[in-house]
Structures are given as C-alpha cells and as structure tokens.
Design brief:
There is one protein chain. With 416 residues, this protein is of the alpha/beta class. Helices cover 37% and strands 16% of the residues. The protein is built from 14 helices and 13 strands. The protein has helices spanning 14-28, 53-70, 94-97, 114-122, 169-182, 193-201, 256-269, 271-275, 307-316, 331-338, 351-354, 369-382, 386-397, 399-415; strands at residues 2-9, 32-39, 47-49, 101-104, 127-131, 187-190, 209-210, 240-248, 277-284, 298-300, 319-322, 342-346, 362-364. It has a seven-stranded parallel β-sheet with strand order 3-2-1-4-5-6-7. α7 packs across α12 (369-382). The two termini are 15 Å apart.
C-alpha cells in the first residue's frame, strides 16, 4: 500500500508535528508512506518539498492579500481565517499519482487551493482528510469560538469587516466548499469526538463520511519518573510542580488569564498545598508582565526545544493544566498524562477523549478559575497512580494503535 500525506510543513506547528508522527507510525507498520509539504525543515528522506520558496511565497501572499483587502485592511484577524483561493498544483506530482491513498492534513496558507483539491478528487483515488481544526466545516475560520453560523451557511463573519453582510467572504467560500464536498467522496477524520460533534452540527459535513481517529503520540518514550536530573532549570523538585506549556502562553485562545487567576485562587483557598507547590511555565510569552500577577511561587523556563527535557519535566511534575478556551485535542495534556501527571483542564474541546473526570484527571467548569484551582488541589491530594495514568493514554493514543486504525480505514476505502 502506498500512502501520500499532504501537509503545510513537516515540523513547524502542531498539525505538522502530529502529521510527521503519523508518517512514522505508518512506516513502522510497513506502509510505504511519503509526506509532501510546502515547507521542509527536517532531513527526513520520506519528506518532499513540493515547490520553490518563491512559488510558495506567491501563493501565500496572494491569498493573504485578498483576505486583507476584503477585511478592510485589518490585521488582527488576518491569520484566523483561510480561503484556499491559491495553492500549489499537486494532482500531477509523481508521489500523488503513484499513491493508493491520499491523506490531506493542514493545507492552508498556500499549500492547496479548493481548485487544487478538485483536481485531486478527479484522480478517483480514496481521499482521507484529517481535521486538526474547524476549517473544513466552516466557511473560512479555523476556530469558530462562540459563533454557530457554521450550522447554517456562514456569512456575517465575526472575523471579516464587510458590514456584517450575509454574502460575505465566509459565505461565498462556504458555497464553494459545499459544491466541492457534494461532488466528492472525501472521508473526513476529526481527531477528537468534540470536533466530530461539530461536524455533525454543520451544514457542510453533517451528511459526509466522518470518523474519529486520534493523533498518534510516542507514548513509549514517556516515563513516569525522571531518568536523569534536568540540567539548567532553576526548579525546586521537592515541591509539587504544576506545569503549563504552549508554543505561546499568552495566545488569546490559551486563556492564560484564567490560569493566572486559578493559581491565585489555589494560593488563597488551599494555602498549605500552595506553600508546597510551584507553578512552572514553558513556551514563549509576549507580555511577560502577566506572570507578575501570580501570587504563588512560579518559574518561567521559556521555550524548550529539547523533547527529552520536556519529557523529564513532565515526569518530575504532579499536575499539568490547560485553560485553553478551545482545544481540538490538547497535546500537552496527553504528554503530561503519559509521564504520570494529572491533567486539569476546561472541557471545550477534545479533553473528554483524554480525561475521565476524577479518575484520570479533572475537567473544570468552563471559564471558572475557582474550578481549575479545585482541580489542582484534587490532583495533588488524590495523587492517582502514575503508571495507571500512563497506561490510560497508551491505550488510546500510542502510535501503533493509531496507525492500525488508519490502515483499517485505508483498506476499507480501497475495497470500495
């Protein structure tokens, strides 16, 4: 079986990381799999860059310019939407023509246009589209936030300044997607049950083939106890460590202000536990002054590029928290739990696929810092068995488990 994966990049961004892992997981199961990307940064021989940098930049800039113009020259929401008006032609690529199955992943920002997708459909090959956000089921946005217009025909988009008219850029793109999906046989794979629920509610994907398969994680590399001292981090390992990590901690969707308030609630309501605890943050932050509002002991380690150091950090901690307002499938919770950390999180997203409330973690009341604080206290006081936590995610997200689910899907589609 020959499988070709399509993704914007091989290592840059969350969707790229999990797509690269899927490639490796399928390879270990004996699948001949290749990854086509717009931006290659690894030296993996199975990854092929599809065009030159200048060709990539033209497609990217033309799409962004159109959005910029239609959005009244407004920058704040420029990258919260995509229109897939421009991309690279892939239907004639040798690795696409030679594939038995094509697996689309995150292909925005100049990778694949809707016209290019139509060309792929005409090849008559089975097409699987792994969904890492909501873009497939909305007109143009990657996360609809509180908006539910994807249940209708989009239009009046919160991210587009066109006088809030119905026939705006989001609606016209919705129409193009609707026509395309209705004439195709794409099999959509949301990576969480939550995202599958959004598909069922939407007018674009409500009647399409939809099947949940989670992202693959290298669970076997996560140990529940640190195997060696972590060098260079000024952390008191005798304390209960409460971790929070993100590429950018104060990205608005990460709800960082709720994390700060939750830690202060924990400090106020559980003073004895807080005295024996320390909050540890890793990842970039644009406004470091936000950290100064935290009343309990904390450390900010900045960006950590060494995966081994991150795994050791998880193995040394007791709790991993997430206050993301929306999260398709929170990787930090899975990674932390694989190392024996207790996950504490809001539940707007794929958290319910990871956490069994008050068994393997704590799902807090949405946007309630008090509830997150309660969850942190519960996690420290209850201290669930670390091996049990590791095994609970191994059963759901281990690379071999996920690869076999994809192979089963591929075989079913090929038999049709």
């Amino acid at each position: 079986m020959k499988v070709t994966l399509l993704n914007h990049s091989d290592t840059l961004g969350g969707a790229s990381v999990v797509t690269f892992r899927l490639m490796q997981a399928l390879q270990l199961q004996g699948v001949d799999v290749r990854l086509l990307v717009l931006m290659k940064s690894s030296d993996n021989e199975a990854v092929t860059q599809v065009c030159s940098r200048s060709r990539r930049n033209v497609a990217f800039l033309l799409e962004r310019l159109n959005i910029f113009l239609r959005n009244g020259f407004s920058k704040p929401n420029l990258f919260k939407v995509s229109t897939a008006t421009h991309g690279v032609s892939l239907a004639s690529h040798p690795l696409v023509k030679d594939a038995d199955v094509i697996v689309i992943n995150w292909i925005n920002q100049g990778m694949l246009s809707l016209a290019g997708l139509e060309d792929l459909i005409r090849l008559g090959k089975p097409i699987v589209w792994t969904m890492h956000d909501m873009w497939c089921l909305t007109g143009i946005c990657h996360h609809a936030l509180e908006c539910e217009r994807y249940k209708e025909e989009c239009g009046k988009c919160q991210f587009i300044k066109q006088g809030k008219v119905k026939n705006d850029l989001s609606h016209s793109t919705w129409v193009r997607k609707k026509n395309l999906y209705n004439s195709s046989n794409i099999h959509f794979v949301p990576v969480s049950t939550w995202l599958a629920g959004k598909c069922a509610e939407s007018t674009l994907l409500g009647n399409q083939h939809v099947e949940v398969i989670h992202n693959a994680f290298p669970i076997e590399f996560y140990k529940t106890k640190p195997t060696s001292p972590i060098q260079g981090f000024d952390i008191d390992y005798d304390k209960n460590l409460i971790l929070m990590g993100a590429a950018r901690l104060d990205d608005p969707i990460k709800g960082f202000e709720y994390a700060v308030e939750a830690l202060n609630e924990f400090h106020k309501n559980y003073p004895q536990l807080a005295e024996k605890s320390e909050a540890v943050f890793f990842g970039d932050i644009r406004d470091a002054s936000l950290l100064e509002n935290i009343k309990m002991s904390y450390r900010h380690l900045g960006r950590i590029n060494d995966p081994k150091a991150i795994r050791q950090l998880y193995a040394s901690a007791q709790v991993v928290i997430s206050t993301s307002l929306y999260e398709t499938l929170p990787g930090t919770l899975i990674e932390g739990q694989a190392a024996g950390c207790v996950p504490v999180s809001f539940g707007k997203g794929g958290q319910a696929d990871i956490i069994d409330h008050k068994e393997t973690g704590f799902i807090a009341e949405y946007k309630s810092p008090q509830s997150i604080a309660e969850g942190i206290a519960w996690a420290i006081e209850t201290s669930p068995d670390r091996e049990m936590l590791h095994n609970s995610v191994k059963e759901k997200f281990a690379a071999d488990v996920i690869a076999k689910k994809y192979i089963d899907l591929f075989n079913r589609l090929l038999q049709k």
